[in-house]
UniProtKB/TrEMBL annotation:
<keyword id="KW-0479">Metal-binding</keyword>
<keyword id="KW-0560">Oxidoreductase</keyword>
<dbReference type="InterPro" id="IPR003251">
    <property type="entry name" value="Rr_diiron-bd_dom"/>
</dbReference>
<dbReference type="InterPro" id="IPR009078">
    <property type="entry name" value="Ferritin-like_SF"/>
</dbReference>
<keyword id="KW-0149">Chlorophyll biosynthesis</keyword>
<dbReference type="GO" id="GO:0048529">
    <property type="term" value="F:magnesium-protoporphyrin IX monomethyl ester (oxidative) cyclase activity"/>
</dbReference>
<dbReference type="InterPro" id="IPR008434">
    <property type="entry name" value="AcsF"/>
</dbReference>
<comment type="similarity">
    <text>Belongs to the AcsF family.</text>
</comment>
<comment type="pathway">
    <text>Porphyrin-containing compound metabolism; chlorophyll biosynthesis.</text>
</comment>
<protein>
    <recommendedName>
        <fullName>Probable magnesium-protoporphyrin IX monomethyl ester [oxidative] cyclase</fullName>
        <ecNumber>1.14.13.81</ecNumber>
    </recommendedName>
</protein>
<keyword id="KW-0934">Plastid</keyword>
<keyword id="KW-0602">Photosynthesis</keyword>
<keyword id="KW-0521">NADP</keyword>
<keyword id="KW-0408">Iron</keyword>
<comment type="function">
    <text>Catalyzes the formation of the isocyclic ring in chlorophyll biosynthesis. Mediates the cyclase reaction, which results in the formation of divinylprotochlorophyllide (Pchlide) characteristic of all chlorophylls from magnesium-protoporphyrin IX 13-monomethyl ester (MgPMME).</text>
</comment>
<dbReference type="GO" id="GO:0005506">
    <property type="term" value="F:iron ion binding"/>
</dbReference>
<dbReference type="GO" id="GO:0015979">
    <property type="term" value="P:photosynthesis"/>
</dbReference>
Length: 349
């Protein structure tokens, strides 16, 4: 931790569940033919250019106060929430900015879309980092850029993962916003008032990746695609569920039950994804959330072991059976037969 005159610079701790920084095969991305869905891309680009949130992320006088009244535990959890959110937004900014730069000559429509999405993500990350500054801290984004390991994903995996990330981000933000709109007494900090318009950026970004997927039918219309869609749905849902299980006290501080919140977000994201993906997960099967509960409990045990034992070898010995149990329950989750998207969409209508 580096201390500056007014604040401390912090670097996010990296675990299996922290937001990741991605890179991809830029040459393969540059060769993508989006002509099959060009009209939708042109419509989305028009929305991006409109920049509906140009004047939205402006701090008002409500931010100009001391936050020392927050109890220590709530403050720690809230700062962690801000830090993780800022890291995720900044990760998106870096990826989209690089994609825009690499695609300028070969695919100007995609390049401009990525450029304007990077604008949105930078705006979000900056707003979050200013919020962290209210607690005399700042996330060292320059350090993150240089030090964080980058995970390589092929373009189609980027599309699956980022589509779901943007859509689940929408449902997370709008669910918190609507809850606090009804229960303003739980709004511990003014940033939550910005979530309604903010999540529309996430929704538009998700629509862009949906258009990309639809422009490449082989990413959606065969057995391999169905297996990967199933994998990424489960990965995104499980990551959120395990993370939020660790941070249930934060959600309690804003008047939410973390488990019920996650169940609602998962159901809504599953419905949204069913409009693009050929399959959806069977979240109505009782075992689905039961298995997730077991995984979350096992993950908490892993965290407790890190706190209890300093010796790395002993930690690994203690963790091994827990990892095996966690992995087995994830396999059981993946083994739950999915539902054809057409079945879900017919009930939504």
């Amino acid at each position: 931790m580096q201390v500056t005159t007014n604040s401390s610079k912090i670097s996010a701790k990296e675990t299996l569940l922290t937001p990741r920084f991605y890179t991809t095969n830029f040459e393969e991305m540059a060769k993508l033919d989006i002509s099959l869905n060009i009209q939708e891309f042109e419509a989305i680009l028009k929305e991006f250019r409109a920049d509906y949130n140009r004047q939205h992320f402006i701090r008002d006088e409500e931010f100009e106060q001391s936050w020392s009244n927050l109890d220590k535990k709530t403050k720690t959890l809230f700062i962690e929430f801000l830090e993780r959110s800022c890291t995720a937004e900044f990760s998106g900014f870096l990826l989209y900015k690089e994609l825009s730069r690499r695609l300028q000559k070969t695919n100007p429509i995609m390049a401009e879309c990525f450029l304007l999405m990077s604008r949105d993500e930078a705006r979000h990350a900056g707003f979050l980092n200013k919020a962290i500054g209210d607690f005399n801290l700042s996330l060292d984004l320059g350090f993150l850029t240089k030090s964080r390991k980058y995970t390589f994903f092929s373009p189609k995996f980027i599309f699956y993962a980022t589509y779901l990330s943007e859509k689940i981000g929408y449902w997370r933000y709008i669910t918190i916003y609507r809850h606090l709109e009804k229960h303003p007494e739980h709004r511990i900090y003014p940033i939550f008032k910005f979530f309604e318009n903010w999540c529309q950026d996430e929704n538009r970004h998700g629509d862009f990746f949906a258009a990309l997927l639809k422009s490449q039918p082989n990413f959606l219309n065969n057995l391999e695609a169905r297996l990967w869609c199933r994998f990424f749905l489960l990965s995104v849902f499980a990551t959120m569920y395990l993370n939020d299980f660790q941070r249930s006290d934060f959600y309690k501080a804003i008047g939410l039950d973390s488990r019920q919140y996650d169940i609602q977000v998962i159901r809504k994201t599953n419905e949204s994804a069913s409009r693009i993906f050929p399959i959806a997960l069977n979240v109505d099967k009782p075992e689905f959330f039961q298995y997730l509960d077991v995984c979350a409990s096992k993950n908490r045990l892993l965290i407790e072991i890190d706190k209890l034992y300093e010796n790395q070898i002993l930690r690994n010995i203690k963790k091994l059976p827990i990892y095996l149990s966690l992995g087995w329950n994830l396999i059981k989750l993946y083994s739950i037969a999915p539902i054809k998207s057409s079945a879900i969409n017919s009930t939504i209508r």
